[in-house]
Amino acid sequence: MNFNNDSSQVKLLFLLSSSKDNVDKLVGLVKDPENLFIENSHKIILKASIWCRDKDKSLTTEQFEYFCKFISSIPPQKMAVLAAELAAIQSIDSVSQDDLEVLIEECKNAFYFRFLKSELDGIKSDRSPDFHKKLQKLGDNINKCLSVNSSNVFNFHDTAENFSPFVESLKKKAVEPENRITCGIKEIDECMVVGFRPGTLTLTVADVGGGKSTMMLNIAYNLFKRGHNVLFLPLEMPWEEIFKKFLSRETLIEFEKFARPELMSDRDWEVLDKKNKEISELKQKLMWGDVSSRPTVQEIKRAVESKLHYFKPDVVVIDYIANIKPDGKVDNWLAIGDILKDLRAFGKQYGFAILSAAQMTRDGIKKLKNDKDQTKTPGSEDLRGSHEYSADADNIFAQAPSPDEPNRKMLLYCIKARYGKKTFEGKSYAILDFYPEFSKIDSSNAYSFDINDEEFKKQMDMIGGFSAEKLKPESKEDDFGWMST
Predict the structure, then answer these.
(1) In the structure, what pLDDT confidence band is assigned to residue 265 with cuts at 50, 70 and 90?
(2) The domain containing residue 199 runs over which residues?
């Protein structure tokens, strides 16, 4: 181990390991700070400092050991050596906070020296007679090096340099299409051309009690059943309550029975046991969060990061954004833009999509409620509280009861589709089937519940399902209280 207390790299590590603000400054000034360090052990300490900064924690011995063990999977013997080196670095007492920028520059200059020496050695060993071409290549590499170690705000991509590899990547995707994450409700999937891609934000919008949680539950349920890891964070209700809705959706046992278990039949318990066995054998996971108070985005981020060694989600469902507490003392609606941007950046960093919800304005609700001919479409102005929703979200879907069958049919509108379309086979809305007793929402033309379908009746009898009487259409009179949240 080449350890030198007087080196600029060690002194810089001391300042980084002792202050999150110093890490912020380094990351802002240098795009790839690992380049500044030679020793692999120093690079690991740097990564741990950045990781702790993201968790809003200090780099203590305990945090460092956790990072080494669970985040970097470093063997115990090597971890002990690294911990001893960190302790030695943190014991330095001859470094001033005022030295930070000077040390960063010294480390950058040392990197430039190493880089230039390596490039010149390469030119010396290159037997090609075209010295002009060598110098041109050297100039290009120097420019790239300076770019990599400059500000972290922008990335620049040269068209000539990227054209060919970009086309090659398209050809590869044409032969081996990407595994687009879809939710199984075809009306939603057809609007979302890229699916639930990491870093995207999708919102479902409705009135209070308009079924936002039920819609998010169904999307989460379908994603889970299609083999994707899903994290569901209910911020408005205890997780047990949304889990009862999941069980009803999974088993087709009426939700009322989960609220009052004494109503369960022997067949119901058999169905639950069968489903328990099926789910326990699945490789993918559906995780539920349980919160004791309104969390901030940073608290959500730290909670997810702490489980990444065990569970990496493909989609994170947050029920819902208005229940997230701003980090500062700013009014929640004024902070919505920052919250949305932080969530998208968080998803992009760790490779998952975000699904959440927002409320519709009373004017928007009134507009749809009085739309007997179904010719009106909600817009971004109908989102309650902040125009940031429409600016930051990639996809926004609104839902409302169908005037014809408010307790059995749902109208779905697409307010925004950043990468797709906002219409449904030429119409401004689609019709979905809704079965509140099972917390089930599905495409209207999918194989659904038809009380006159004899084959369906047989299937329901086999699994101890519900009676046809319970599926008869209810009264059309409804004052937008047709669905529970």
Answers:
(1) very high
(2) 186-471
